[in-house]
Amino acid sequence: MMADRYKLSSTSALVLLWTDETTYPCEKSRKYLEQLDLSCGREVFNQCRDIWPDYGEVIRNRKYCIHNVLFNEIKSKPHPQVIIFGAGMCPLSLEILDRFSDVKIFDVELCPNPAKEKIMSGLLNPGQCIRYLHEDIANTEALYNKLQNAGYNPEMNTIIVLEGVSYYVCKDRLWNTLAAFKKSKIIFEYLVTDEQIDPERRHIPNAAFKAVADDCCLKDIKRYNIDELTQPPTPSTLNPNTASPCTTSNTPASATIPFSQSLTVGGLRYA
Ligand SMILES: C[S@@+](CC[C@H](N)C(=O)[O-])C[C@H]1O[C@@H](n2cnc3c(N)ncnc32)[C@H](O)[C@@H]1O
Fold it and tell me: For the chain, which domains are there?
């Protein structure tokens, strides 16, 4: 039976092993998840559980919070477009379409994932679609162009979900990309710095993130303090080579820090 399932990489499997039916309750998500083999994520999952038995709660709470804010925001004011950056294997698109069938969804990932795209496509209602884009979100201009080619309309209200991704992307380039999406609200979760964590519990996120970083051969994990999220970066911290189409000429990138328009900035505090 397992042989019929799609085997995921360890990191993709890990994040799903931390979820349950309360995280992705809709029937289509359940059917999608049934077709995935998460066994490769077990080792790092067990390592994190040994670091702190309740580690999964952190991820479920993060997801609960993000989904809640996202769905309430779409309910309160129609947002015809949602862009999910670094969507990975998570079935958030299916959950959105289950509740709001008219939302246009752009699912952005570094590399194509034929298994996910195939399974999800088979589960959609007639007329529904998810637009899959493959691009590094740090490549602002290429990303923006691909989105526009796929039907993204910069004049329409848009929500951007950036979940579980901020740790991987260079800060300046992430800023540049988010600054490009002017009519957007950004739901953004991030890892706080050591100083913001109770010294007695600091070892928990450090050890868990080290286990994850070792597992995916990641050298550097980006962490954020509140000043970085609420104050515009100085121009020197922004890389002019990556300025987006929206942050050129009369609108300097330093004046378009995205977080003035962010909807949720939630940090994992472990406190
Ligand atoms: C930890 S997973 C999170 C998946 C999903 N957002 C979630 O929270 O369940 C991180 C995902 O971000 C993607 N990612 C990392 N860096 C990226 C980048 N520069 N551009 C696009 N995707 C990226 C990875 O491929 C991976 O699928």
Answer: 2-268 (3.40.50.150)
Residue that the structure tokens 């919070």 belong to: 65
Pocket of ligand 1 contains residue 87 by CB under 6 Å: yes
Residue with tokens 């009519």: 183
164 CB contacts (<8 Å, ≥6 apart)? 15, 62, 86, 88, 189
* Ligand 1: residue whose CA is nearest its atom 1: 164
Q: Which residues make beta-bridge pairs with 266?
A: 189
| Residue 90 near residue 16 (C-beta atoms within 8 A) | yes
Interval 32-79: pLDDT, tens? 999 999 999 999 999 999 999 999 998 999 999 999 999 999 999 887
Residue pointed to by tokens 């740090």: 138
Q: Which of 134, 131, 185, 177 is nearest to 157 (CA)?
A: 185
Q: How far apart are CA 248 and CA 246, in angstroms?
A: 6
Residue corresponding to tokens 């790092």: 44
Pocket test for ligand 1, best of 90, 106, 168 (most atoms within 8 A of CB): 168
